[in-house]
Amino acid sequence: MEIFLGAFTTEWEQRKAAFLHDLTLGRRTLPEEDERRRGGSVPSAVSTETPKSGFRVRTGRQRRADRPMRARFVGLAAGSQPAIVKMASFGGGSRLGAMINYVARNGAVVVENERGDQLRGRDQLSTVGDEWDHLMKNRAESRDIGLFRISVAGGGPADDERFNRARKIVTHGLGDRAFVFSVTDRADGSGFEIDGVTVLRNSGGERLTADNAAAAIVQTRMERAETGTKFQFMGYGNGTDYGTSQVRSLVTAHKGQVQDEQERVIADAKQAGDLVQLEWRDQLHSRKPRDVMHLVLSARAGTDTDAFHNAARDFLGQQFAGHRYVFSLHDAQSDPKAEAAGGKRPHVHVHAIIAMQSDAGDRVETTIAAFRQWRLTMAEKARAYGINMEMTDRRDRASAPAYSRNQVRPVNTIGRTQHKGTSSAAERRYHAKRDDQPNYSATTRSQAYMQKAREQWCELQHSQALVAQHNFIQSQTVRLADPRTKGWIRETVRNEAGNSDSQFRTHSVKLTEIVSEGDDMRHMTRPEFDAYEKRVETALFQAEKTMSPEERRDFDDIAHAARELVNVRREIVELLEVGGTDHRSSGADGPQDDKRHWIDAVERHGFEAADAANKTLLDIERTREAIERIATEKPEEVPALKKELDTHITKAAELGASGNGIIREVAEIDGDLKAALQSLERDRQKREYENSSARVQSNEAANSNRGLPQGEQKQTRPDDRDAQGRKNPGDTASRDEPGNTTKSDPAKQHDPRLEEIQRVTRERNEGNHDERER
Q1: Residue 663 to residue 685: CA distance in whole angstroms
Q2: Where, residue-wise, is CATH 3.30.930.30 in the chain?
């Protein structure tokens, strides 16, 4: 059977078809398979033998060169989002079903596999396990924690002495292993029981299996020092999670009467968790099977969902060719899981469950270099679909290291998830990452990389093409200025006054970054806003401590402006909490206030922009009221009115896309208008991307025309000018469209009283509108 690659619309489908076709025909040679398993590449000139198939599958995993640092930094300065590819977890074959059900929300979310098949419902999802069964090694996880009980015959001394005696008995049996235990007297007074939890691996590497054979070994060791004892294992488990739960259960059952091998009392759940997480973790040498991995691809809130879905599909198809995988997309609108339960995250993200071993025997490489390559590929695929995204390195901006899921636990899932560290060190690491604190690497290689990155940022700082991004670029150079040099350490005390200026600049830049966090204000909840306000006040306090007296006046102006902006954003959050109906009912304070708000809008945006915005918004409001009014009386007229409403919203979105500041502010609180505006902006970005590709092709054509006769070159130029002439009038019209307030409108100003402006204009025009209807 012959297949035609042209029948597939995307590159990943072509590669999949070629791969499966070659597998079915057995056209892979043993040398190629051996080279693939060794991670090498097969040169095209290895053999002079003509291949039997017209297509070649990718047999090696050569890494492409990174995107130039300067190009990445230009993209970041222009507002591109970083490519986020996170490893959530690994699992064995026994966990495959649970992991797939998680990403599919128990069948409520559509899941797609590597062949492009869409799986719906739990019945179709259950077939994945059978298809992947030959790839699952089902290796057993290590036994790390054991539960034991020791029965001691005979009466016992007082409580303290009984604990000491019990500790000696356990130590004789378990050796230098860490453990906790509690003592319980028998009801008949014939002896007592020792219940405990222990680490199964000792310092020499010997691991007890927590079965009858291991219990016999421990029993023999105890009898050498204590007669009348009987040892038995009650259970075992893997990892710190199991250990923490068992130690806490022991503490709860014995009401805090628990001690460890060092005579320390473990009285509550926090002490139990700290003991296992901080002290036992390194002793476990825990091992879990890695048959499948859970990968998460994330994007900012507001990213085009369909474009990101397509980019993720292409990324998985290229990066994991030959592997089995399934993936699904979650966003705030389509996720059926409740926000309080951890669902409906404010950002769009894709979950992928990938088999670690391919059908050809290759295993997925999960090194640091591999993750860098994944981010590079993800950013490339996203840009192809009009999403501005760049691969980033932590050293590009001196960012703090990430925290793992074992170092934090979620405490609030409303909005952006808030965590709490499992220890003081984990808490510091969490806040360093969450607050985006600078972090300077200690290795020579990383310091050289960061020095190169700072040089690139400094070059961009003097670029005339990036004047608008000057503050952002300057903040990066400040972050990458590593103060941890020997000279700086020696001169810290002596030059404290001189360093305060640099510290003030650093805190000022930090304040600018915090205040500018309003891009996602439409998604900010009350807890997030409270944290945002606290960060602003903290940054103001730190900057004020390090400023010089002559800078006090300017700082007061900056602090006043920052607090004013926080107050405006507080009003937006309150508006979102109250809702549109309550806001409309509370806005009619009087004609004088309405007139003042109208004048304020005209002063900020100009009469032409305010009038154009209000006319469009009034049309939207009237149409919505008409839909509500006749929804029950004349439902057959609702579709026509909804179509009219879509027309008005599209018109308003076009006005906002052309730069009208009032429309953009209203879009922050109007979901339909916001969606239409974002759709227009995405279409514009896609057209710009296509135009840039067309320009590249045009340049290549021009270069090829240099070798043609002069007459032929002249014949092509009038057509090019005609095409440009047909294109330019539309561009000119969009630039000259009335209502453009881009130049005069301060960036990201939010005024929650805009609906009051709309209301006064609506009331002023009510009479004329009624006359026209009559």
Answers
A1: 20
A2: 87-139+289-385
